[in-house]
Each structure stands twice: as structure tokens, then as C-alpha cells.
Amino acid sequence: MAPLTFLSSPSIIKSATAATAVVLLTGMIIQQRQVLKSTYRNCRGMEGMLRYIWIGDFLPPHIRDAMDKLDNVSKRMVEAEIQLEEIEILIGRVELESVDGPRRSPEEQNSNNTSDTADDKEELKKQLFQQYPEVRTKIGLFSTSLDKLAYTIDSINSHRDADVKTRKKELSNNIVALMNSLDRMVSSLNIGVRL
């Protein structure tokens, strides 16, 4: 007597295994649907998910290239912020060292007790840049590097991608903020920098 021989047939075992796998997979998908939805959105749809599985990157190559260029600009922005801090320290030092105004010889001070304030400002500017030529140099180099960063950002093609456009806008706004900070520092010295 072979009571359970029909349960040991290979086709029934395969069918039962497949049914169990389908039930388990469905349960896992239902359980993880929020994770799948966010992954789907983050990977930019099914095409991005498949690209992520096969290539390891959910972005198309042209978008990845634009994002890599923006990452590079972002790193250079950090360097620019450090340069701006150095310029700020240098300008602070110049302001502290030039508190007394333009230096004059004792003969000039005795002969000209009532001096013109406009002449004093021009003399102060002249002395500041003679004593601290690195101020003009650093300001000029910093301004040039910001212009190059702005050009780099403008030259990156967004390919009508919203994320690339958003990053470009954020980086451009950061450059404008750095330029405005530099302008405020320079204007605090009342010095017009001509390069």
C-alpha cells in the first residue's frame, strides 16, 4: 500500500514550491511597498531601477556626467569659501594695522595740520596696497576663480533634468553670495580694486 505516492511526484513538488515562492514574494512586496515606492522614485522609475541593478547607477550617462561636473564645482566651492575666510582675515589685519590713517613724516605733519580727508583716503589706499600687495592679489585671484566657477556651472548642460537644474541654481546662488561677501569686505575698506 502506497498511500501518499501522488504527493511525491516531481511535478507536484515543483508546483508547490512555485506557489510557496509566489506567496512569499507577494507577502514581501506588500510588506516592503513603501521602501519600493521610495526606491522607485529615487531611481527615477523602472528604467532607473533596472539601470541600477545592471550597471550600478540609476542615472543615464549624460545626466551622470553633468552631476559629476557639479560635484567637482561643489568641491571647488568649499575651497573658495576657505579662500574667502583667508581674505577676510587679511582684510581684518589690514584694517587693524591701518587704524591710525596714512603715515606721514614729521615735517609733513607740522606743515599741514589741516589736511583734506579725500587726500587722506587716497593716501591710505595707496599705502595699504603698497604695504599689503597680497590683498589686491588675493582679491583678484579669488574674483577670477569665482568667475571661472560661474562659467563652469553655466556651461553644464542640464538635459532638461530637474535635479541638475536645481543643483546648478543652488551653486549659482552660492557663488553670488560669495561675491557679495567679498564686495562687502572690500567696501568696508573703502577701496576700489582695479585689476
Notes on the structure:
This protein has 195 residues and is an all-alpha fold. It has 8 helices and no strands. Helix 4 (61-97) runs parallel beside helix 8 and helix 6 crosses helix 7 (133-155). The termini are far apart.
Quick overview of this protein structure:
The protein has 195 residues and is mainly α. It has helices spanning 10-31, 33-42, 45-54, 61-97, 106-111, 117-131, 133-155, 162-188. Helix 2 packs across helix 3 and helix 7 (133-155) packs antiparallel against helix 8 (162-188).
β-sheet strand percentage: under 5%
Helix content: over 70%
Low-confidence stretches: 101-106, 191-195
Question: What is the N-to-C succession of helices and strands?
Answer: HHHHHHHH
How many strand segments?
Answer: 0
In whole angstroms, the N-to-C terminal distance is: 105 Å
Secondary structure tally, helices: 8
What integer is the average pLDDT? 77
The radius of gyration is 34 Å
Main attributes?
195 residues; mainly alpha; 8 helices
Indicate the topology.
Blueprint: H1 10-31, H2 33-42, H3 45-54, H4 61-97, H5 106-111, H6 117-131, H7 133-155, H8 162-188
Helix pairs in contact: 2-3, 4-7, 4-8, 6-7, 7-8
